[in-house]
Write a structure and sequence with these properties.
The complex is a heterodimer of chains A (155) and B (549). Chain A is of the alpha+beta class and 155 residues long. Helix content of chain A is 18%, strand content 35%. The mean pLDDT of chain B is 95. Classes of the chains: A alpha+beta (155), B mainly alpha (549).
Chain lengths: 155, 549
């Protein structure tokens, strides 16, 4: 099989680039723990309202000064609808759904997770800038999908 | 030895009929689907609200299904059938299998379309459970897929005829590409077929609940190879028709086969890159499939090289050199060639965006935003759709014996598509980086500041979408006028496949598609065994499902 010299070079260069991309991604994953949200935890979707801590969605402060925020998605709202967080706080979000799949996305941040009934999704974020952050549902969930939003105020 | 004697057999009228039947369904779906696209993009910009009897999500579902599934699948089935019939001599060819396939696909499409338009299946083209659509929507979609398996059977039967007549001689390149495309497609659609085995009984109410994450995993096992199915359809035209138009041989028959074999093996084990943001799947498996996703760089770069080389060879034959010479030697006056070249340019940008999406941790910035919509419009709506539209200006004369009604309208059409798609896709990408969600009817969010920043871009996208629809009108007008008023022309087949160079044969190993199919299955097991075992060992809950629209 004849492969042109330039094509050989082109394939080697392309492959090398691909390897570099992958090594960077894998390196960040291993060395810095930068991974996509992959929390593995199940929850009975019919009992979300009576399963702590989702029975009282909202913000909790941990002894080390960081925060956890628990969110419940149901058509077509997020609970809690509003949270206030001090500037600089690191918040680990946990979200689940009682009905269909939702998407939990905080505008202006990388918090962007699929919320699947039966599962708890999680992602952390440090809020360095004050402001009113818009939380939306970014996975189509039905007729009222576009009205499914909430706010986080960082002070 | 590469057979060239059997290239470009003149099809019998009945054979042309079956190819045309696929194209007519494709163009009908294209016209309806793009009309719905226009409605959406204008509605998203806030210009008007769609009425409740024809709401945004119903229109969006119809748009996605008609264009991403029906238009592409029918076109590729027609094209692949043509590639096989035009290169594998079979004077006794029976068309029963081919027509059976077409009817099954058509009935399935009609069933799904009726349910969507009636508002019983506003679940979008990904139909994520536990949103529960009418069972007839899932049945219709299943029939469409089963029909394509019959097309695959027809291809296999023809290849068997070749093997019987010619022994070990490699099948002609166009037939090889069609066969490889359908092997990949068959392996991919097994995933969605398994998903349907869960969805259909559940939609009928025979099973009470559904494992949501499992259906998503099966869907995306199918969903990404679906993308490669589209692009391989375009590749058939790029690799084998473009050199014929330019009157040069295929750049490398051997490497074309290697690239298609690579797609059989590498297309399938990559679906998790659509589920980076899903819970319940270990990041280890997501990283593994990131690596497998990036491997597709190799056949993609081989394709790019072959195409540039073909263009360069064309320039050299016309005594031109250098980048400018190569660009100027492309026959821009030929609407087919102009459209295909513009399609290739769009693909470069589609590739850039795709690397971002596939890049594991980077996906969180763009997941479920309009960026993704911009990306797949500049891939399936760009290189794939524009290649199909442009190739139609050669296909139709070849199949109907009529000249294209208006060459100048055709030229304008491909440029309008290129401009409209560039503008709309750029606007969508930017909107997505600003956080605008995809699949959302109303972007006002109570006047939130973030939402206001999206407004100019939704308007620009609507402008691009309007230009695109003008292009659609130009295309459909030209097709209808060609079929009815086109000048009769009994000349040569215009849709000719380029010959390969003598002696340019791939090693025997690359002719053995059975081996590569088996390897693809092994790679799929390697990529998906971990996620599936992990899934079941978490003891997932099932969900009853509901209609939320």
């Amino acid at each position: 099989m004849h492969v042109h010299r330039y094509e050989r070079l082109w394939i080697w260069l392309g492959s090398a680039t691909m390897i570099v991309f992958f090594v960077v991604l894998a390196g960040m994953s291993v060395a810095e723990g930068i991974n996509p949200p992959s929390h593995i935890q199940t929850i009975d979707p019919s009992k979300v309202g009576s399963t702590p801590p989702f029975d009282h969605p909202g913000l909790r402060r941990l002894p080390d000064g960081s925060y956890e925020a628990y969110y419940v998605g149901r058509i077509f709202s997020w609970s809690p609808a509003q949270l206030t967080i001090p500037r600089g706080a690191t918040v680990t979000f946990y979200a689940t759904s009682t009905d269909v799949v939702h998407g939990f996305a905080i505008n202006g941040t990388d918090v962007n997770i699929e919320v699947v009934p039966g599962w708890v999704s999680s992602m952390s974020h440090t809020f360095d800038h004050p402001g009113d952050y818009l939380i939306i549902c970014n996975q189509y969930c039905g007729a009222g999908h576009s009205s499914m939003s909430a706010h986080i105020v960082v002070q | 030895m590469i057979a060239t004697d059997s290239l470009n057999i003149k099809l019998r009228p009945a054979e042309r009929g079956v190819v045309l039947a696929h194209l007519y369904v494709a163009f009908t779906a294209f016209g309806l689907g793009t009309l719905f696209g226009l409605l959406q993009t204008v509605a998203r910009s806030g210009a008007f609200t769609l009425p409740s009897f024809f709401d945004y999500y119903r229109v969006l579902t119809a748009h996605g299904v008609l264009l991403a599934i029906v238009f592409t699948t029918f076109f590729i089935c027609g094209l692949s059938t043509l590639a096989v019939y035009q290169t594998i001599p079979n004077p006794q060819r029976k068309l029963g299998v081919a027509w059976t396939a077409w009817w099954i696909m058509l009935i399935g499409t009609a069933m799904a379309a009726v349910e969507i338009l009636a508002g019983n299946a506003s679940v979008l083209y990904t139909f994520y459970a536990p949103m529960k659509a009418s069972p007839y929507f899932y049945l219709g979609a299943t029939l469409l897929v089963v029909g394509t398996w019959v097309v695959f059977l027809d291809i296999l039967l023809n290849v068997r005829v070749w093997k019987r007549e010619r022994g070990g001689e490699p099948i002609p390149l166009p037939a090889f590409m069609a066969l490889a495309t359908f092997i990949m497609w068959f392996l991919a659609t097994i995933g969605v077929a398994i998903e349907m085995l869960y969805l259909i009984p559940w939609a009928f109410g025979w099973t009470p609940s559904i494992d949501v994450l499992l259906t998503r995993m099966y869907f995306w096992y199918f969903g990404h190879p679906l993308v490669y199915f589209w692009i391989l359809g375009a590749y058939v035209i790029w690799y084998a028709i473009v050199p014929a138009i330019l009157k040069v041989p295929v750049f490398s028959d051997a490497l074309t086969r290697v690239a298609f074999v690579a797609f059989i093996v590498l297309s399938l084990p990559v679906g998790l890159h659509h589920e980076f943001s899903d819970p319940g799947i270990s990041s280890t498996w997501k990283l593994l499939q990131t690596f497998l996703t990036l491997l597709v760089v190799v056949p993609s770069l081989m394709t790019a090289f072959a195409l540039f080389a073909t263009f360069e060879e064309n320039a050299a034959a016309k005594g031109r050199k250098g980048f400018v010479g190569i660009v100027r030697s492309i026959p821009w006056n030929d609407p087919a060639m102009a459209g295909i070249t513009l399609a290739m340019i769009l693909f470069i940008f589609g590739g850039f965006g795709g690397i971002v999406n596939a890049s594991y941790s980077m996906d969180a910035m763009v997941h479920n935003t309009m960026w993704i919509v911009g990306h797949f419009h500049i891939t399936v709506g760009g290189p794939v759709a524009l290649t199909f539209l442009a190739a139609t200006y050669r296909l139709l004369p070849s199949l109907t014996g009529r000249r294209v009604w208006s060459e100048s309208l055709a030229r304008a059409q491909v440029w309008l598509w290129f401009i409209g798609m560039s503008v709309m896709s750029l606007a969508m990408h930017v909107e997505g980086l600003l956080g605008a969600p995809r699949r959302t009817a109303d972007l006002s969010y109570g006047g939130a500041a973030a939402a206001q920043s999206w407004e100019p871009w939704t308007l620009l996208a609507a402008g691009g979408g309007t230009v695109l629809f003008l292009s659609v009108l130009a295309f459909l007008t030209n097709v209808v006028m060609t079929l009815t008023k086109g000048e009769r022309d009994a000349g040569e087949s215009e849709f000719a496949f380029a010959p390969s160079r003598p002696g340019d044969a791939a090693p025997q190993l690359f002719q053995r598609l059975g081996f590569w199919t088996a390897l693809a299955v092994v790679v799929v097991i390697f990529a998906y065994a971990g996620p599936l075992i992990g899934h079941y060992s978490a003891h997932p809950f099932e969900v009853p499902g509901m209609r939320t629209w």
